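Q: Sequence in, structure out?
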Amino acid sequence: MVNVGILGATGMVGQRFIQLLEDHPKFEITALTASQRSAGKKYQDAVTWHMDNPIPESVQDMVVVDTDPSQVKDVEIVFSALPADNAAVVEPKFAAAGMKVASNASAMRMEPDVPLVIPEVNPEHLDLIETQQKNRGWDGFIVTNPNCSTIALVMTLKPLYDQYDINRVYVSTMQAVSGAGYNGVPSMAMIDNLVPFIGGEEEKMESETLHLLGDFDGETVEPATFGVSTSCHRVPVVDGHTEAVFMEMDEEFRLEDVKKSLQTFQALPQKLNLYSAPEHPVIVREEENRPQPRMDRMMGKGMAVTVGRLRQDPVFPRSLKYVLLGHNTVRGAAGASILNAELINEIM
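A: Exactly. Output:
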């Protein structure tokens, strides 16, 4: 077993890490960190638990420690659920102390020597780790996963990008409130309402998408060159980000070929049979009214992306439209970091 720790273990994403790692066959939680206010308490006394299952017995009585490398002993991998401002300061300290940091935070995502990875999309970008260690003098390293809405989008773009020349992509998101954390959106702001703005989200989606699909030359990543335009919105759904996608190709395509590309898409995690990898990363629904968050967010144990309403646009030639759904705190957050760590543990 590989000893792992969770940084920011009392927050929503930290709790999701604990939930997903409870019965993991290769990773064992041996350290939980939080703020100084929680340090020294048993986990069950430090946390306000929001998951839909009880706190796992294995961590209930574990003593929470301060989020400092000196307090985290005999741990090989740490999963970071820290806020971005804290992560920017803390994660490099853990990497410098020799630990592997699988981060869900946005702080280091676009650093030129830090891999931003979806294992089904760009595992070759992990080769940046060697450059990162050389540049920074670290024995450990940091690997990041993208923004939750970006992950769901790029999982569906990858098999199409490999087959077609994409000119531009327009995306309109309908994002769940859990993406803002438990206290992130006041109830009075969401009941009978939607919020047509999420700060920084559109910029993240546009830059991260092109980076993930970019070419890695062994030293740097050259971003993909098609256009990406996004509009991001918060809707009164608990879990599950829905996205309406409009894509313009450079050539004619057959809708059945597009469906086949999505349905048959598999990649390195599936070939390696990684524990958290869904058998089918993209699931295509034929019903006119799917996907829906309540029905489809847990497909592939929350690690698959569901696509529906695939259709050719009748007005704009060579254009494809579809709706996708991904679980934002599983595939879009904790589960993404865990799958990154599983891949790293398998190949490095």
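The chain has a mean pLDDT of 97.
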